[in-house]
From TrEMBL:
Region (Disordered): 814-834
Principal place of residence: membrane
Claim: Methyltransferase is one of the keywords in the record: no
Protein name: non-specific serine/threonine protein kinase
Listed transmembrane segments: 555-578
Taxonomic lineage from the root: Eukaryota, Viridiplantae, Streptophyta, Embryophyta, Tracheophyta
Keywords for this protein: ATP-binding, Glycoprotein, Kinase, Leucine-rich repeat, Membrane, Nucleotide-binding, Repeat, Serine/threonine-protein kinase, Signal, Transferase, Transmembrane, Transmembrane helix
Enzyme class of the recorded protein, top EC level: transferase
Residue ranges with Polar residues bias: 821-834
């Protein structure tokens, strides 16, 4: 290309930026004429080869309108002006000239008027997100021309008219978006029928959100053609007629919400929808039948059932409450009859059973009612008896414990006005916001380990992305009117008291563009930040700016800083010499302490360590907040397990043996020596140990999702489908193969069970607990013992693990790599529990 043309194009970009600056108030303070806007000095501007390719100015209180000049950025790929509520006016029709645009995000602004038809000219667009504005008029049919579109979000506007589809008159419509995964069109004023032609078998949709509109007519039978769907929300419309009989062909569906419509006909048969975890058909007028739908008990992934006022009739099957992960059942205002039988093998996660205003005459477990489960039977004949005092005959509300990120083993300081203490007890101005999860794979807000896993995942992401976030605080998880999980977030800066503009924009970008991937339990989310008043007030007032400093002031400051640096270096040098001498003095003492432990306790030799750290009692006491009850995360036969945090922020799990524990000195020494040698992703890592003050403590890496047993039993709230179980089994087999064939020395675990397999945040299996392990080598070994210390079932598992690890691993790997029968009649629980 001609150099003069390149320079001319670059000059054009500068002129357009200056035009934007003139059109808007509160542009970044770094937008200064004469500076290199492509050199990284202009906040929110990204360039390639001297041309502007991205404008990211989220949540900085921009005021004004979007001028037509924006269309002259011919190389622009990303335009994100989200969360500027004072950015108003109509969306310029010139937007259609941005032919290279791949992402357009104008969420939570103040735009009004129609969405311009020219938006259909953005042929390279992958993401169109105009959520929470005041757009009016119809959805442009021209959007159907965006053949590459992946994400379409028009939620929360005032759009009217019907959903556009292609026909003889209009050649384009949303039915043409066969590559789109997301149709988010809820909370508008759309009317008319859902078009029969909207859905096609070659579509790749996973989310269909049409809730809270004014749609009428029947649910089209063509919906059943889109087999990729995972979430369908059609609630709060005026839909009528029968639910299509082929609805159960959507076998990948996890959420089905058809509540608050005018649906009639038979209650839909959902047999075969084996991953469905949330169903809400409430407030519809389905036909009454004499038998309660038998297919309910076959849907073993169900967590929440809501069928309030749906004309359900008959006796509840006992197996309904035995669904492993069932948490909430609301079948109130129906015609359920006879005796209620919850049974003793009900789900351990049950929180609420609302059967108010039915025809229930008896309760089998009445005398043994477990009040930890909220049960409502008010309005039933059983509560009409004279002198009834049962608690379930009055409406009670289970209070939900409020979660807040705990202090990180420190004392919260008293901060100056406006500053807030972080979890690491540093005073700062946090960046606040809320994060909403549309379909989390759990409903309990009392399982705090789930929120801790989200916090750990956030910090891991920030560290890997080199974002200057010191810590994250999670507060007050709640459910909003759409039943989405909403968590308040506070991000604390790591290098100063407040974030700068660039850091805020990078954090926003990570969430708005879904760069941050939450743990699998949380799934799809939306981030809604608050204005960062600290940053805005400082930038507008010039606080912290160096541009008005005189040269003399700079010289004085430079000299002072240089002198301080010299003093600090001298102090560090003296401190280093002192520590070196002290370390030399302590070396013999430490050696003697190991020898003393060996001689006094007869443990079979001095410890042979490879990388494990020796902790003092005082250190572990500090890291666990004096072994507080809050930090207690488990109890075993040998003692308590506590969660702690090292000074560098790494989370640890500390197993503290109780006095008189069944694990003696020999087992304690075995576990330290053996585990310090292991380095494998499927074997839990030992960080260190403590035998100070007569204590026996082992310090492990903290594994966020606990034991496999907790997940299989449903106690953890994690849903393990067939694929996840297969990968966990494969990981555990690989860990055992490493122990048997590749460890130095190879060992037999002798206590393999689901309690001793842990799951990290990505559900990777890690073999744990080596107190009963036996090495396969040694000078004094005359034979190898394979005696197993667990139950008979565990003995069988261990025997298979010892003698057939290689063949088992080969089988599992072939299953993982080959075709899987996701409709297998066999219960997937058998893979890991039989």
């Amino acid at each position: 290309m001609n150099i003069s043309l390149v320079l001319s194009a670059q000059n054009d970009d500068l002129a357009i930026l200056q035009a934007l600056k003139a059109s808007w108030k509160n542009t970044p303070a770094t937008w200064i004429d004469g500076t290199d806007y492509c050199g990284g000095s202009w906040d929110g501007i990204t360039c390639i080869n001297g041309r502007v390719t991205a404008i990211n100015l989220t949540n900085i209180l921009l005021i004004g309108e979007l001028p037509g000049d924006i269309a002259q950025f011919t190389e622009l790929r990303v335009l994100d002006l989200s969360f500027n509520k004072e950015l108003t006016g109509s969306l310029t029709s010139q937007i259609g000239n941005l032919k290279n645009l791949t992402s357009l995000s104008l969420n939570s602004c103040g735009f009004t008027g129609p969405i311009p038809v020219t938006i259909g000219n953005l042929e390279n667009l992958l993401s169109l997100s105009l959520k929470s504005n005041d757009f009016t008029g119809p959805i442009p049919a021209s959007i159907g021309s965006l053949s590459k579109l992946y994400w379409l979000d028009l939620t929360g506007n005032k759009l009217t008219g019907s959903i556009p589809v292609s026909n003889e008159i209009t050649p384009t419509g949303l039915d043409m978006l066969t590559n789109a995964r997301h149709f988010h069109l809820g909370d508008n004023q759309l009317s008319g029928d859902i078009p029969l032609g909207l859905f096609k078998s070659n579509m790749k949709l996973i989310h269909l959100l049409l809730h809270n509109n004014m749609l009428t007519g029947a649910i089209p039978s063509t919906l059943g053609l889109v087999r990729t769907l995972e979430i369908v929300k059609l609630d709060r419309n005026s839909l009528s007629g029968n639910v299509p009989s082929n609805i159960n062909s959507l076998t990948n569906l996890t959420q089905l919400v058809l509540a608050n419509n005018r649906l009639t006909g038979p209650i839909p048969n959902l047999t075969g929808m084996n991953v469905l975890n949330y169903i809400d058909l409430s407030n519809n007028t389905f036909d009454r039948s004499k038998v309660f739908p038998p297919w309910f008990s076959s849907l073993q992934a169900l967590m929440i059932i809501k069928m309030h006022k749906t004309n359900l009739e008959g006796e509840l099957p006992v197996g309904l409450f035995s669904i492993p992960q069932l948490q909430i059942v609301n079948l109130s205002n129906n015609w359920i009859t006879r005796a209620l039988n919850i049974s003793s093998d009900h789900s351990t996660q049950l929180q609420l059973i609302d059967l108010g205003y039915n025809q229930i005459t008896d309760f089998i477990q009445r005398s043994q009612y477990n009040t930890s489960i909220g049960l409502i039977l008010v309005g039933n004949p059983i509560c009409g008896e004279s002198s009834v005092v049962d608690v379930f005959c009055s409406i009670t509300t289970n209070t939900t414990a409020s979660y807040s990120t705990p202090w990180n083993n420190c004392e919260p300081p008293s901060c100056d006005s406006g500053l807030i203490p972080s979890p690491n007890c540093r005073c700062a101005y946090p960046y606040k916001g809320s994060i909403s999860f549309k379909d989390p794979f759990f409903s309990s807000l009392r399982n705090f380990s789930i929120f801790m896993s989200l916090q750990d995942s956030l910090m891991k992401f920030f560290n890997n992305s080199n974002l200057s976030v010191d810590s994250v605080a999670l507060k007050n998880p709640t459910r909003n009117k759409d039943d989405y999980l909403v968590i308040n977030l506070e991000f604390f800066p790591s290098r100063a008291r407040n974030f700068n503009m660039t850091e805020i924009l990078r954090i926003n970008f990570a969430f708005i563009n879904q760069t941050f991937k939450p743990p699998q339990l949380f799934n799809v989310y939306f981030f809604d930040p608050d204005p960062y008043n600290s940053l805005l007030s400082e930038e507008m007032s010039g606080v912290g700016s160096n541009k008005h400093m005189s040269s003399n002031t700079k010289i004085i400051i430079g000299s002072g800083v240089g002198g301080c640096v010299v003093m600090v270096l001298l102090v560090l040098a003296g401190f280093y010499v002192f520590r070196w001498k002290e370390k030399a003095k302590r070396a013999p003492q430490q050696s003697q302490s190991f020898e003393f432990w060996d001689q006094s306790n007869m443990c079979g030799g001095v410890l042979q360590l490879k990388g494990a750290r020796l902790f003092t009692f005082e250190e572990l006491q500090k890291y666990t907040n004096n072994f507080s009850e809050f930090n207690n995360i488990g109890k075993g036969g040998c003692g308590m397990v506590y969660k702690g945090s090292l000074p560098n922020g790494q989370l640890i799990a500390i197993k503290r043996a109780k006095k008189g524990s069944s694990q003696g000195e020999l087992e304690f020494k075995n576990e330290i020596e053996i585990l310090s040698r292991f380095h494998h992703k499927n074997v839990v890592g030992l960080i260190g140990f403590c035998f100070d003050r007569g204590e026996h403590m082992l310090v492990y890496e903290y594994i966020v999702n606990g034991t496999l047993k907790d997940s299989l039993s449903g106690r953890s709230g994690i849903r393990l489908d067939w694929t996840r179980r297969l990968k966990i089994a494969l990981g555990a087999a690989r860990g055992l193969q490493y122990l048997h064939d590749h460890a130095d020395p190879p060992i037999i675990h002798r206590d393999v069970k689901t309690n001793n397999i842990l799951l990290d945040e990505q559900l990777v299996a890690k073999v744990a607990d080596f107190g009963l392990s036996k090495p396969l080598s040694g000078a004094n070994n005359t034979h190898i013992t394979t005696e197993v210390k667990g139950t008979m079932l565990e003995s069988i598992m261990e025997f298979v693990g010892i003698n057939h690890v290689e063949s088992t691993l080969s089988t599992l790997e072939s299953c993982e790599g080959g075709s899987k029968d996701y409709n297998s009649p066999y219960d997937s629980d058998s893979l890991l529990s039989a």
